[in-house]
Amino acid sequence: MPSTITEKILANASHKKEVSAGDFVVADVSYAMAHDSTAPLAIEGFSKIADKVFDNDRVIIVFDHFFPAPTVAGATLHQKSRKFVMDQNISGFFTNGVCHQILVEKFVSPGDVVVGADSHTCTEGALGAFTTGLGSTDIGGVMATGKCWFKVPESLKFNLTGKTKKGVYAKDVILSLVGDVGAAGALYKACEFTGDYVKDATVASRLTLCNMAIEMGGKNGVIEADQKTLDFLGGRVGKIFKSDKDAVYADTYEIDVGAVEPQVALPPVVDNVEPVSAVVGKPIDQAYLGTCTNGRLEDIEVATKILKGKKIAQNVRLLVTPASQDIYFAALKNGYLQALVDAGAAVCNPTCGPCVGRHGGVLGEGEVCLSTQNRNFTGRMGDPSAEIILASPATVAASALAGKIVDPRDYL
What we know:
By secondary structure, the protein is an alpha/beta fold. It is built from 14 helices and 18 strands. The protein has two domains: 5-16 and 25-256, Aconitase, domain 3, CATH 3.30.499.10; 263-410, Aconitase, domain 3, CATH 3.30.499.10. The protein has helices spanning 5-13, 39-47, 72-88, 99-106, 136-145, 170-181, 196-200, 203-211, 227-233, 291-294, 297-307, 325-333, 336-343, 393-402; strands spanning 24-28, 31-35, 59-62, 92-94, 113-116, 130-133, 147-151, 154-161, 189-194, 220-222, 251-256, 263-265, 273-275, 286-290, 317-321, 345-347, 368-371, 387-390. The strands form five sheets. Strands 4-3-2-5-6 form a five-stranded parallel sheet, with helices on both faces. Strands 16-15-14-17-18 form a five-stranded parallel sheet. The protein has a four-stranded parallel sheet with strand order 10-9-8-11. The longest helix has 17 residues, at 72-88.
């Protein structure tokens, strides 16, 4: 029977010859992840059903949402998770990067089934794996058993062709898609990205595409692994699955990325997408470059090319958070961080903190933040009256320079 990548991975992990959309399966899990916001509740659930994790090398705990601890309450939660790490002899414990970037740099391989107590675990599907977010108590169950049940999702194919124009990036492409499909348009579906654009894209850009599958309601995002993937993995070997040519999709979207302009998502929802021209001239108070969506080296490089040798506007604060320590060191070695600091940026430790309003970069009453993150919900970064507008790293950097939202193509 013709099958999609997602169907093949879930069939393999559940020891079945084949599965179809709508089937229920119990799959072996390659890795289970929780972070400092979600691990405490996962540990509570785990403790009610087991004494030992299924595999101490396949349970990953990352402190990234509020690290270092900004409050006594945060420090107390960290204590609970640290005790669990020590008691269970967890080898995969990290405090030096965003959980999704840590997973792609050190763990995930093609064909894996990966679950995380964070909705943006769909990011890791860019490496040809089935990766998805679960609730904390569900992760506790996986920590105990190494298994998880799934309803096999229908798949949507996003066939992206052509070449982007100058000043248009993967973030603009995925924002455009989210705007077209809607926040619930891919509800519980596998979002499979294909086409010449995807083949030509860097692994970092592919990660950006898959990261925001959840913003369409997707169960997972996935891209077929290829030589670029294997080069990125640097020796980690998995099992590459490819969708059959006659595989069944719930729907297929044909998109010429050459028609995409720089995009923004306006509050309070991610699918409220407009071309940047709709808001050019809007003053901003904060510009934020980072997160699991756009905190990678190529994103920092784009911003550096715009800002090097210049100064950000006096009315703007610019925060930069590399997605991992490896990226931080690479950006440091390349001189990017020095250039950004010279331009007036505050470079922070690899963290999720500002994105979720937990640590650093909290917004005050009525403030406007132009950000490379993936969500712009009311109150997410601080005061409920503040506005979060989503954009590409280029748009964020250029706007920090101007003190207001601008079209990045004028600054490249």
